[in-house]
Design brief:
The chain is mainly beta. It has a single domain, classed as Sandwich (Jelly Rolls). The chain has 3 helices and 24 strands. One of its GO terms (molecular function) is 5-deoxy-D-glucuronate isomerase activity. Pfam families: KduI. Its EC number is 5.3.1.30. InterPro entries: Deoxy-glucuronate_isom_IolB, KduI/IolB_isomerase, RmlC-like_jellyroll, RmlC_Cupin_sf.
Length: 300
């Protein structure tokens, strides 16, 4: 896989009612998916989840979700750089209606179990400051395995201050195994959805960031994508990172992960050539610009 196959610019996967639609079939794999709705004021969209569990995650604006007789109001946020948001979980085999105004992401995964729909509060989202120095970033672990219960779906948000690198050192999760050093690795498909501060989806002249994905001799992949707001990069396998925020422009990405394993995990291994970098953080302060965004104060 090369850049032209892995990098999906905003609008290239649109299919009404979705402004962005990536199914497992579209991605060429079996588990992970992502959709984005752009809702005009008061607009309503109804859809069936089929065999996928999903989250309803406001990127900009607010929404109300109807599922299984429940009404879940999401206070949302002005933008991904303004606040940590609340969200809703909707199960497989459900009919869902989303109404509101703004842009809403729906990360998804093929699910075996049908769980109950429920609300995820922004105040309950674990916010982690990871790395140090120019590798500092903020991770909103809203649907990490230890933070929120799903059948297969894992999703987190990462905010990288302008000029910094994240998803670094490069790491992979492409096979279920334990390495010689005892590090556990899991087989996961991953989607990166990007936004760039000051940009808007569909603006070809908007500010940019960069995403690198590369493979091994056994499984080659070679991707270096210049990404703008609304773009996606698919990671079927291989080392991914760094994600590079251009100086002056903070970078956001939503990571959606899912795989065949019976246990939800984000287990990964670093590229051994660059793993030493983690040890260098001990002597460096975290970037003082972090956190970039905290929980919203106007939850439902």
């Amino acid at each position: 896989m090369r850049t032209a196959e892995a990098h999906l610019p905003w609008g290239s996967t649109a299919r009404p009612p979705w402004a962005l639609e990536i199914t497992p079939e579209r991605a060429g794999w079996r588990h992970a998916g992502l959709r984005v709705l752009t809702l005009a004021d008061g607009a309503t969209v109804t859809f069936d989840t089929g065999d996928e569990e999903m989250l309803v995650l406001p990127l900009a604006g607010a929404a109300t979700v109807h599922c299984d007789g429940l009404r879940i109001r999401l206070a949302g946020r002005a933008s991904v750089f303004a606040a940590v948001t609340d969200f809703a979980y909707v199960p497989r085999d459900a009919t869902v209606t989303v109404e509101g105004a703004g842009r809403v992401a729906l990360p998804s995964a093929r699910a075996a179990r049908r769980l109950s729909p429920r609300y995820g509060a922004a105040r309950d989202v674990p916010v982690e400051l990871r790395g140090a120095g120019p590798a500092s970033r903020q991770v909103n672990n809203f649907c990490a395995p230890d933070a929120f219960d799903c059948d297969r779906l894992v999703a987190v948000e990462v905010l990288t201050p302008g000029g910094n690198w994240s998803s670094y050192p490069p790491h992979k999760h492409e096979e279920d195994r334990v390495h010689d050093g005892g590090r556990q690795e899991a087989a996961l498909e991953e989607i990166y959805y990007f936004e760039v501060a000051g940009g808007r989806p569909g603006d070809p002249a908007g500010p940019v960031g960069y995403q690198r994905v590369y493979g091994t001799d056994r499984r080659p992949i070679d991707v270096l994508a210049e990404v703008r707001a609304g773009d996606v990069v698919l990671v079927p396998y291989g080392y991914h990172g760094p994600s590079m925020a251009a100086p002056g422009y903070d970078l956001y990405y939503l990571n959606v992960l899912a795989g065949p394993g019976p246990v939800r995990t984000m287990a990964c291994v670093d590229d051994p050539r660059h793993a030493w970098i983690r040890g260098s953080w001990a002597g460096q302060p975290v970037d003082p610009r972090l956190p970039l965004a905290g929980p919203t104060t106007q939850e439902a």
